[in-house]
Input
Amino acid sequence: MTAQVGTPELPSQSIFCFRVSIPSAPSVDKIYMDVSSIALGGLVIAERALERTATRLTAAGDPAAMVDIAGEMINLMHARTDFGANLKVLETGQEMQKYLIDIFA
Output
C-alpha cells in the first residue's frame, strides 16, 4: 500500500477507515479535527455494519440462502466492539471539553 501526501490510499473493502484530504501542508493550527464528529461518524458506520449483519442473519432462516452464521456472528461482535469503542471516544471527548471549560472559566 503506497500513499501520497494528502491523499492516503485506503483498502476498498474497509468500512472503518476515513479518507482525509489536506490540500497542502498547512500549519498545525489550521487543521482542526473534532473528536465528537469523528466518534459520531464511527457510531454511524458501526450501526450500518450491525444492520447489514442483522439483515444477513434474518436470511439464514431461508433454506436457499447460503449464510455463514459463524462469520456473521463475528461481524456482529466486531460491530458491537466498534460501537462501544466509538461511544467511549465520544464520552472521553465530552469529559475533556468539560475539563477545558472548567479550566478557562
Summary: The radius of gyration is 19 Å. The CA atoms of residues 36 and 91 lie 9 Å apart. Residues 1-22 have pLDDT under 50 and may be disordered. Helices lie at 35-58, 69-104.
